[in-house]
Amino acid sequence: MTEKKPEKKQKQHGVAEDMNTPPELSDTKKHTLYKTLEVAREKVTTEIKDKCEGKKKFVIWIAQIDPDAIGSAMVIRYYLMVCLNIDPSYIQIYYGGAVSHAQNRCIFNIFELDNLFQRISCEEVPHKEEEEIWFLVDSNDLNDSRFSGMDLSDIDIIIDHHRISAKQKTEDKIYFIDSIGSASTLTVELLETECSGLENLPSDSDREKVLTLASIGIRNDTNNFTSALTHTRDTEALNKLIPFIDNDLTIQVENYPLDNNYFSILSNVLETRKVKGIRAIASAGYIYEEDGDQLAEACNLLIREARVSIAVVWGIILETGRVRLSIRSKDVSLNLDSKLKEVFEGKGGAKQTKGVAEGGVHLDMGDFVPSGPLKDDETYKEYWRNIIEANITGKISLMLKDSGED
Questions:
Q1: CB within 8 Å of 169: residues ≥ 6 apart
Q2: What are the residues whose beta carbons fall under 8 Å from the beta carbon of 152, sequence distance 6 or more?
Q3: At what angle do helices 67-83 and 102-110 cross, to 10 degrees?
Q4: DSSP 151-196
Q5: What residue ranges of the chain are covered by domains with CATH 3.10.310.30?
Q6: Alpha carbon of 106 to those of 84, 113, 255, 297, 400: distances in Å?
Q7: N or C: which end of the chain has fewer CB within 10 A?
Q8: How far apart are CA 99 and CA 201, in angstroms?
Q9: What is the pLDDT of residue 148?
Q10: Alpha carbon of residue 339 to chain centroid
Q11: Is the distance from CB of 68 to CB of 182 less than 8 angstroms?
Q12: Is 7 helix (H, G, I), strand (E, B) or coil?
C-alpha cells in the first residue's frame, strides 16, 4: 500500500500574490485556487479590522490622481464607513501632484470629489499620531517620487496591483498586493468579502457613486481589458459592479472633453521630436502643472510609430521648476523599471507588462546643475531647456546602451 503524502500547507500571510490562474489548470485546481483567494481576502479584512480597532483617524494616500487611484481610494473610504462604522469626518484622502488630466477633472466635477480629496506637498505632510491608521493604495513605494520626496514609512496598510520589491516588506505592515490590472479590483474584492456580496451594501447614492468610480478605475487601468496585466479577476469584479453603477455618469467620463492646451502641447512635442535609431525624444517645453498629464498622452502617440521602441516626452513645470518625464517602451527585453531607477539614481519607475511598458520620472532642477528659481526670461529658459534635453538624451542613451540596444 502506497503511503499517502502529507498535503502541502498553503502559505498564509497578508499578501495576495502569485495567484493568477494559468489557463491550463483543471476545474478542480481552479476551485482550490479561488478558495485560497477567498481565504487570503478574509485574512486581510480581519487584519485590517484588527489594525483599525480603537483608532480615531484614517488617512488614505494616493501618489497621483487617476481613475484607478480615485476608485480604489473611494472604495477603501466606503469600506471604512460601511464595514467598520467609521464616521466619514474621520477619514481623509491625500494625493500627490495635481488634478491635471481632463478626464480626472471631469471625474472630480461630476462626482463632487473636491471636498473629499486634499492635495499635499512635502512641506504640508501631516505628522502621524498614535490613534491614526494610514493606507497607501495604487502604489507600494514608501518613497514614491510622486510624493515629492515624502517619507511614508508610517504607512500601515498597502493595497496595490503593482509588483513589490521583497526588501521593502516589513512585518509591521499589512499588504494586499497582486499583479493584476487594477487596484480598484483589489479593493472591490475586499469590500465584497467583508459584506458577503455587494448586494448587501446599503442601497443608496453612496453605493452607486463609489461602485461607479470603481468600475471606471478598472476599465481605465486595464485599457478596457486590453492591457497585458488584465486578469480574469478584473473582469469578474466589473461584472459584479455592473448592476449597481450609473451608466450615464460612466458615459460622461469616457467622453470627457479634451483640454484646450492638448493640441498646443502635442504641436510642441511633434515639432521638437528627434528620432535616433529606436528612440524618440521630444519636449513639450514649459507647461503648467495642470497640463502635466498631457505628456503621457503625447508619449502614447509617439510610441505607436513603427520604428520607435522607446519614446520619451518631457516638460518643465512652470510653478515648481520640476522636470517631468513620461516614458514608453515596446522592447520586452528591456526592464524599464530597473533601468529608469538605475540611470536616474532611484527616481522614477515603470509598470512592466507584456506589451508597452509605461513609466515616468519626476526630477528637480538641482538634478541637472545647482539652480535658483526659474526666471521669466526667454534666454534663461532656453538655456535650461538645452541643458535638460542634453541630460535626458544622455541618460536614455546610457540606458539603451547598457541593454545592448544602441
A1: 15, 175
A2: 61, 134, 136, 142, 143, 144
A3: 30
A4: --TT--EEEESS---GGG--TTSEEEE--SS-HHHHHHHHHHHHHT
A5: 262-402
A6: 30, 10, 10, 16, 38
A7: N
A8: 30
A9: 67
A10: 19
A11: yes
A12: coil
Average per-residue pLDDT for the chain: 83
pLDDT of residue 375: 60
Grid coordinates 517602451 are at which residue? Answer: 329
| Run of H or E residues at 61 | strand 57-62
Cβ(192)–Cβ(198) below 8 Å: yes
Which CATH number describes the domain made up of 262-402? 3.10.310.30
d(CA 171, CA 307): 47
Burial group, residue 166, by CB count within 10 angstroms (0-12, 13-18, 19+): exposed
Angstrom distance (rounded) from CA 50 to CA 44: 10
Report the alpha-carbon distance of residue 240 to residue 129 in Å, rounded.
37
- Range with top average pLDDT, 15-29, 171-185, 198-212, 332-346: 198-212
C-alpha dihedral (110, 108, 351, 303), degrees to nearest 10: 70
CA distance 140 to 159: 7
CATH fourth-level superfamily of 27-254: inorganic pyrophosphatase (n-terminal core) (3.90.1640.10)
pLDDT of residue 398: 87
Q: Which residue has the cell 488630466?
A: 101
User: How do residues 212-256 score in pLDDT, each as one tens digit?
Assistant: 999 999 999 988 888 778 899 999 999 999 999 999 999 999 998
pLDDT higher than 70, residue 179? yes
